[in-house]
Design brief:
The chain is of the alpha/beta class. The chain folds into three domains: 3-27 and 42-328, Glycoside hydrolase, family 3, N-terminal domain (TIM Barrel, Alpha-Beta Barrel), CATH 3.20.20.300; 349-550, 3-Layer(aba) Sandwich (Rossmann fold); 603-723, Immunoglobulins (Immunoglobulin-like). The chain is 29% helix and 17% strand. It has a six-stranded mixed β-sheet, sandwiched between helices. A five-stranded parallel β-sheet has the order 4-3-2-1-10. Bound molecules: 1-deoxynojirimycin (NOJ). Residues 32-33, 84, 128, 181, 260-261, 472 line the site of 1-deoxynojirimycin (NOJ).
Amino acid sequence: MSRIDDLISTMTLDEKIGQLIMISLGADTIVTGPKAAADPSVADVRAGRCGSVLNLVGRDRIHALQKLAIEETRLGIPLIFGLDVIHGYHTAFPVPLGETAAFRPDVWRESARIAAEEAADDGLHLTFAPMLDLARDPRWGRIIEGPGEDPHVGRMLARAKVEGFQSADLARRDAIAATAKHFVAYGACTAGRDYAAVDISERMLHEAYLPAFEAAVRAGTLAIMPAFIDIAGRPLSGDKGFLTDLVRTKWGWEGIYVSDYDAIGELIAHGVAADFAEAAALALKAGMDIDMQSRAYPEGLKPALERGLIAMDDIDAAVRRVLAAKERLGLFDDPYGRGSVAGGAARPLAARRAAARDAAVVSMVLAKNDGLLPLAKSGGPIALIGHASVKDDEALGSWFALGDMNPITGLADGIRAAFPDRDVIVERGCDLALDGPSPESDDADIARAVEAAKKAEVVLLAIGEPALLTGEAASRTRIRLTGRQEELARAVLATGKPVVLLLGCGRPLTETWLYDAVGAVLITWYLGSEAGAAIGDVVSGARSPSGRLPVSWPRHVGQIPIFYNERPSGRPWAPGEHFTTRWVDSPNTPLWPFGHGLSYTSFEISAPRAPATFRPGESLTVEVDVADVGDRDGATTVFLFLRDRVASTTRPIMELKRFETVDLAVGERRTLRLTLEPEDFFCLGPDMVARAEPGVFDLLVGESADREKLKGIAVTLLDEAAVA
Ligand code: NOJ
């Protein structure tokens, strides 16, 4: 008999239910959900009332609790310790949307690996990441946590992150399990309001929202977290069709579902369960394994069993999956391995910091440059103005859970280090003002900032969105600067000095007037531990920027949702014709398209080359030449889009199929070979079956989704019947 069968045969009902419960024990330091009626405690562990714990950090505390579970509970089953390790553990990397902008899977993988090494070294086993929610509505604060608007990018990010966190062997002492979240379409919440209902078509779900999760499953993610929301009346946390029929049966996944915080209990508020017993039964029957912090499994599973809503087999199946996960993590054989001296995060601190600095450099997006950047190494004073220049921890973003972190290289230090021969005058300018009016002291601060600007040769204006207004439960209707930052910007611009905007944000901000008024816009997101050093690298030209926008950047909030791969209209916009799809008060295009991002050098991209015809089932290799034709080294991202001209259902105007970011030396020319697989040409027919439909496809390549600048050729997928 296997260890798991053996255990299940001896477990009491209470012990089984305990394995399906995850409690939060970090309430003193880390709070990631609403307040519970009664806080769980160590007594729950001793009594076998839980099988996993979240939000507890510190290897001594974790090991002590593990010891208690092993030595003081009847069966001695080890606990799983989980935490939201979102963009780094000790060493903070750029926030996910920012890091996505790097378009470098190797960077995505490496930052997850380093985070896993550090977290595992602190005793942790599981992270609630990667967040894979496609987001086309920047009003939603959680857009910052994910891969942006494109399904292919989501797929690539999913794979890189799962591989990075888990490594090749989940039982390794430096590996932690990944949780693909939030399954699925959470980002489509109505009007971008967090936790609100979702109503999207099945086609949109399959074409846009599911691919990243399928990729995470293929990459072997140990866990999946169902989303809080319902899709068209089906709350995910209790939906068998999604959780079991699709993911377990169709995709063949064998991992564990961990609910979102209190989400099973919230099935009552959704109105699909009358009490905890019904909520617990719905979730368990759907395939949900672990209840994070709700009272549904603790209080509802037993009554559900008594009422006949569930059977013991349903409980056993979930317990079996949880124990199997513990086995895959190596916890039965090595329960204290992670965090033990021998386990150790072997990588020296300097190497981790260098990786964080590099990730930060390649994540920045130079959205506009009138030639102001890079700044010369010598010259007159630089005025560094704005809240971010004095508040270093803004660079950590809204979700960096640990108190025990490396010092941050702040913006002022980074700029001073990058320009040792220039004066750097630092002024806060004004408060970031989370909400409501800014303090009156701002009058004096703004006046001082204006004086600094007058003395300077150039201004670096480091303003944006307060990190605390991004992330969970941070939806906004006005995605603009807060407090008196607009006033500050106008006052600084009125001095006539050249201004470089360093824009800290976790989503597009619709300050189109400001982007027009300044000489350069560098989007700096929240870049992590080495933010200041990295910004110094780019502003001084030590490194050329190469990040690209993973989301279309709207001109105005009224354009939302705006994304490049929309389906065609029967009345496409045409100049001079009234009855076409358009706004009367705004262009249809975003301010900056998906993939937009400038460099200090320039590139030439050839038209794509590919065989004119190919057969069903064959792959197709597309060649593109790319050259650095400017006067310095740099990197560019080549995007390959596909357009299916005529199909049985309307196809997006174009779909991203491949991207590759290439580092090039001045004058260097390379040929990229991008291979498209048969599935890349599939189309979901009216019957929702994916198949290749013969006909003509356009292959389009370029440095962004700006359709005016793409170069293309047509290829034909032959009709097998006609060929024969
Ligand atoms: C709620 C969030 O939705 C989820 O992303 C997170 O992992 C959990 N809280 C646990 O902290």
